Structures are given as C-alpha cells and as structure tokens.
Amino acid sequence: MGDILFLGHRVPYPPDRGDKIRGFHILKYLSARKRVHLIAFADDPRDLAGKAPTEMTGHASVIWRAKSRLRASIEALLTRKPISLTAFDSSAVRGAVAALLAREAIDTIYVFSSQMAQYLPARPRQQVIMDFVDMDSAKFAAYASEGRGPMAWVMRREANLLFQYERAIAGRADASLFVSEAEAELFRERSGAERVQVVENGIDTEMFAPDAPFEQIDAIDALIVFTGQMDYRPNIEAVSWFAETIFPQIRVRFPQAQFAIVGRAPSEAVKALARQPGVIVTGEVTDVRGWLAAAAVVVAPLKLARGIQNKVLEAMAMARPVVASRAAAEGIDHADTLRVGETAGEITDAVIALLDDPAAAAHLGRAGRARVQARYSWNARLAPLDAILGIGVEAPPHRTAA
C-alpha cells in the first residue's frame, strides 16, 4: 500500500487554534495507520519552527505564506477566481507537491480545506479525500447578506465563485468530508454532490479536564469567559455583540461581573472593548485552561458559525457551564448539557440564571463533561476515516527526516 499526502492550508501544529486542532489530530490519526507526508503553509513565524507529531513518519514541508490580501484580491479580479484561492496560490507549494508525487509512492491525497484542492494533479491517480470542514461559500453568502455597498459585492462574488469551485472539487473527490451533519446536508442540498460524509471534531478530554495540571489564574467573582482567535471575524462580531449589548444587562444584576475575551491577535475593535467597565482583553495566553477553569460561565454568542465549535467542546470538557448561540451549538449533541439562546435577551437571561444558581451551573458543567467524554473523544470521532480511506492500524515505515 502507498503513502498519504496531507495538504494543509495551515501547518497543523502546534494545535493552538480551531482549524489546526482538527488538522493535528487527523494527521496524528492517519500517521498511526500509514506513512504520511505533509505539505502545508505557515502564516505565523513560530510555526516555521514547530515540530511535527512524533507519530508522523513521512516528510514535512512547511512553506511561508507571504502573499498580501491586496495582491490576492487583485489576482482574483484578474483571473476571475475567488480570493480564497488566490490567497493560497503558490508556485513553491505547487513545486513541492509535484516533486513529492514524483518521488514517493502516494496512493491517497488528503486535502484539508478547499484552498488546497488547487494543488491536486489534473487527473489524480491517487484516491482524493476532500476535507472541506465547513461550507465556506455559505459563510461568505451570510457576510454578503449582512453587508452593504462594495464589500457586500465582494462577499457575493466570493460566495458564488467559491461555491462553483467547491461543487467542482466535490465532483472529482472520492469523498467530501464535513464536520457536522448540518454542514454536510447543506452542501448536498445546494450542490447535488454525492459521496458526502461526516467526520466530526473531537476533544482531548485528558488535557481539557478540570483535574489536569495547568496554570491557575487568580479567582475573579462572576467571571464570564469567551475564548477564540480574536482576529477572526465571527469571533470579533460575537464578543462585540456580547460586550456592547448583553454584558451591560448582566452587570445590572451582577455589578461585579467581569467579561474576559481570551485569545491571541485581538483586532483593534476587540482591544477597544477593554475600555468598557468589566471587560478584560487578555491577548494570547500560554494556556486557555486556567481561564476556563476560573469561569463562572463560558459564552459562545456567535451569530455566524459553521460546523462544530472547538471552543464549546473545550469548555464542556472543563466541566464549565456554557451558554451558546443557536449557531454555535449547531452540530453538537448537547441535549441538557448547555444553554442555548437566540436573542440578546435569551442569552442574557441564561447567563444570569447560571450566575444566580451556582449549584445548577455546576451540575450543567458536570453533565457537559460527561457528554464530551462519551461522545467526542478524537479516536471515536475519527474512526470513520478507516472505512473512508480503506485503511486499518498498521506499523508505518521508519521516519524520514524533514
């Protein structure tokens, strides 16, 4: 049997943000079964020095993505392609893929995120697994519906061109994967694609555990926590909505309440929220678990969310009570293990109810952890890959130097 080539839009280690977490665990899972080679982009200088999982036995090639947003936008207009593709168009990656396919016996190409499908051979002799994760074109369509003027036009253009591309790639792939049944069904309905399957996200329940060793933070009364990559538009919109509309109402009932926005690369809009009473913007932290453990309530008030939210699973695994928007809870088997609100009033009431009743909040947290342990371990969630790829556990060959 041949090897696997894993193409990633972002190097999947260290697993310190949502897309990298899924990629890391898939890479680790596949490497326990076959020899896996990695070609991926890096957009953080620290990722260039990152170490591949010890289980990985193939070659790793990490290539810096230096193209500016402006250049990608101009190229997209000139070539009538989506910006999502031109932003990741690289002759260096194209050369690396061609060289590896010529040198190694590859029988499966695992494409992680649609941006990387442009590096597939014109007529692949290999099995192609397209892990879309989420339906990105639907995200841009939602942005377009909310926008105005030139930006709305840009988002509509992106949504339409990317959807055409997604549908074409799904037609070429042996399997198209999505992170939740809701995303998979949406793609089936809109594209008419076949061979669409679900491989859900999981969680490391030994690492994210209330009794695991991690650095604690000082206790803060009535602490409400949001975690995430804070230059990501849906996260920016979520914390802005919460801090400006919901949190002031909570402070009427709990004047001492604090809202901590925990995550790296906060945008200027996020930093500005720290000027509001009770709002903390931490920036990057070494370990998010300390903030989760200290939280009286964890919130995920995303108005736009695709697939399964790692931030919600992490909080549940830490046995914290969670209040999430309907969009953030979609795709998670959460019956009676978190609170869901649609409007600002519903989310406000849910948070206040949990702050008012610590015993109920603790019970909800314990139920959430039990659900995650039973349902969302990574091995359990990734097990469908064995049948999809037609592989089983076997000892991969010796490691090749990167």
What does this protein structure show overall?
The chain is α/β, with parallel strands linked by helices and 402 residues long. It folds into two domains: 3-202 and 378-389, 3-Layer(aba) Sandwich (Rossmann fold), CATH 3.40.50; 223-375, Glycogen Phosphorylase B (Rossmann fold). 45% of the residues lie in helices and 16% in strands. The chain has helices at 18-31, 45-48, 69-79, 83-86, 91-103, 136-146, 149-172, 181-191, 233-253, 268-273, 289-294, 310-317, 326-329, 344-356, 358-375, 378-382, 384-389; strands at residues 3-8, 36-42, 60-64, 106-112, 127-133, 175-178, 196-198, 223-227, 258-262, 279-283, 297-300, 322-325, 339-341. It has a seven-stranded parallel β-sheet with strand order 3-2-1-4-5-6-7, sandwiched between helices. Strands 10-9-8-11-12-13 form a six-stranded parallel β-sheet, sandwiched between helices. Helix 2 links the parallel strand 2 (36-42) and strand 3. Helix 12 packs across helix 15. The longest helix is centred in the middle third of the chain and has 24 residues, at 149-172. It is globular, with a radius of gyration of 21 Å. The model is unreliable at 398-402 (pLDDT under 50). Residues 96-206 form the Glycosyltransferase subfamily 4-like N-terminal domain. Pfam families: Glyco_trans_1_4, Glyco_transf_4. One of its GO terms (molecular function) is glycosyltransferase activity.
Layout of helices and strands:
Elements: E1 3-8, H1 18-31, E2 36-42, H2 45-48, E3 60-64, H3 69-79, H4 83-86, H5 91-103, E4 106-112, E5 127-133, H6 136-146, H7 149-172, E6 175-178, H8 181-191, E7 196-198, E8 223-227, H9 233-253, E9 258-262, H10 268-273, E10 279-283, H11 289-294, E11 297-300, H12 310-317, E12 322-325, H13 326-329, E13 339-341, H14 344-356, H15 358-375, H16 378-382, H17 384-389
Parallel strand pairs: 1-2, 1-4, 2-3, 4-5, 5-6, 6-7, 8-9, 8-11, 9-10, 11-12, 12-13
Helix pairs in contact: 6-7, 9-14, 12-15
